[in-house]
Give the backbone structure.
Amino acid sequence: MRVVVISSFVSVSLQLSFLLLLASAIRSSSSPPNDPFLGISPQDEKYYKSSSEIKCKDGSKKFTKAQLNDDFCDCSDGTDEPGTSACPTGKFYCRNAGHSPVILFSSRVNDGICDCCDGSDEYDGHVSCQNTCWEAGKAARENLKKKIETYNQGLVIRRQEIEQAKVGLEKDAAELKKLKSEQKILKGLVDQLKDRKEQIEKVEEKERLQKEKEEKEKKEAELAAQQGKGDAEEKTDDSEKVEESSHDEGTPAVSQHDETTHHDEIGNYKDYPSDEEPAAEGEPTSILDEATHTNPADEHVVERKEESTSSEDSSSPTDESQNDGSAEKEESDEVKKVEDFVTEKKEELSKEELGRLVASRWTGEKSDKPTEADDIPKADDQENHEHTPITAHEADEDDGFVSDGDEDTSDDGKYSDHEPEDDSYEEEYRHDSSSSYKSDADDDVDFSETTSNPTWLEKIQKTVKNILLAVNLFQTTPVDKSEADRVRKEYDESSSKLNKIQSRISSLEKKLKQDFGPEKEFYSFHGRCFESKQGKYTYKVCAYKEATQEEGYSKTRLGEWDKFENSYQFMSYTNGEKCWNGPDRSLKVKLRCGLKNELMDVDEPSRCEYAAILSTPARCLEDKLKELQQKLEKLMNQDKPQNHDEL
C-alpha cells in the first residue's frame, strides 16, 4: 500500500516538472524583443517617446513604457504591442534598410517565415533569415535613378515651355489689341459701305417705282390716243369743210385765218380740261390726239402764215416792221419746235403733261409740274449753263431720277444741246460726299498715304475711299449698276472680314481666361488633343475642350472640360453622355512627369467613370525632384547590410 502511494506521488511530480519545463519553453519563445521600439515606424517613434505614460491611439487606455512590447495586449487597437504578436490588430514595421519599407500584421511576427528582407520579424532566433534588402533594393535604386533622370530632363523641357508660354501669352495679348483696333477701323468702313449700299438701294427702288409709273402712264396715254382717234378724224373733216366754204364765198380765208388761228388755238388749249375739270362729252379727250393727227387746215395756215410773214418783211423797210416780222417768225419757229417735241415725246409723257406743255408754250405760263419739255435748251440757256455753277442746294433738291426718255435722249443724241457737267464740280462734290461720314478710322489712318507694302487693312481703306468717291448718288443720271455692284461686293467682303476678326477676338478672349497653371506650364495644352488606342476603342482627350471614346464612326462623349484638381495633379471632365440607366459619363486624367505628352492606361474602374494617365513635362516639378534625390542619397549612403545570423 505504501509502495503504491509513493509511485503515484512520483508520477505527479514528473508531470508537474514537465509542465513547468513546457511553460518555460513557451515563455522563452514569446519573450519580448531586446529593442523596445522594434516594429515602430520612424514617423511614430516620437509618439512613443514623448512621455512616460502612453495613450492608446483609440483613446481607450494608457500604458507605461515598461508595458510596451511586453508580449501582453493592453490596448484593443494594438498600440502597445507593435513588435509582438500579442495583439491581433497590431502592425509591424519592417525598416528594410537598402530597400523599401514594409508594414506587416503583427500575427506574422515570429511565425517562422521571413517576411521582412532584413529578417527583423523573426527575432526570437528559431529561424535564420538572411538580409536580402541590398540585393532586392538594387532594382528599386536603379528605377529611382531613372526617375530622377526623367525629372531632370523634364524639368528642362518644362522651363522651356514656361518661357514659350510667356511669349505666346504676350503675342496673344498683342494680337488681341491689334485685332480690336482693326475691328474698330473696319467697322467704320463697313458702316460707311452699308450706308452707301442702303442709299443706292433706296435710289434704285425709287427708279424702279418711277419706271413703273412712267410705263403705266405710257399705257394710259396709248389707250387714250386710241380712244380719241375717231374724234380727231372727225375734227379734221370739219376743218376741211370750213376751208372749202371760205374759198367758195370768195372770202380772203388766208388773212382771216392768220388773224384768228393763233387766238383759236390758244383758246382751245386753255379750254382743255385740267386735272380737276373732266373733259366734256364730244370734245377731244387728249392733246396727244391733236398733236398726233394734225389738222391739214392748221398746216395750211402755218404755211400761209410764214409766206405772209416773209412778204411783210420784204415790203416793210422800217425797223418796227422788221421787228414785228422777226417776232412772228420766232413765234412760228417756237410753235414748230413744240409740235415736233410733242410728236417725239407723245409716248413718254402723260396726257396731262402734254396739255400743260402745249398750253404753257402758247400762253407763256410755266406749268406747275416740270416736264421733259423744259429740258429743250435755248441758245441763251446754253450760254448761261456753261458759265453758271450748280450749287450744293440745287444738287440736294435734285432727287437723282431721270426717266427712260431722258436716258434714250442722251444715248441717241437727239437733244445734244445739253452741255456736259463741269468735271471740277463733280470732283468737288465727290469730296464733300465722302466726308459726310467720318469714322474713328479717319483719325488713325491717312487715306492719302500708303506705304510701299500696304497691309490688307490699308488696301481695304483705299478701296473703300475710291468706291465712295466714285459712286455719286446725287448725280442726274441713273445709278451705275457696275458701281452699285462694286459697293455691294466690297461691303460683303469687308463684312466677312469683320466677322472673322470678331470671331478671332472672341476666341482669344476665351483663351486668355483659361487656367494654364501657376507658371502657365499648361499653356501648350490649349488647342491640343492626346490620343490612346486601347483594344477596339480610341480615346481622345482634348485639353480645355472635351474627351471622347471612338469606335469606328461612332463617338461617345466622356465629358466636357471642367478644371484642374488636387494642385494640378488631375484634369477633370464632367457632364458626358448619360449612361443607360446610370450616371453621366466622366473622366479623371492623372498627370505625371514625362518627357513628352502621352496618354496611356485608360480604364473604367467604376461604371461610366473613366480614369487615365497622361505623362507630361508640365508635371516635372523641381520640389519633387529634390525629394527623389534625397531618397536616393539616403539609400546609397547606407552600409551594405550584414547577414542576420542566428545568435
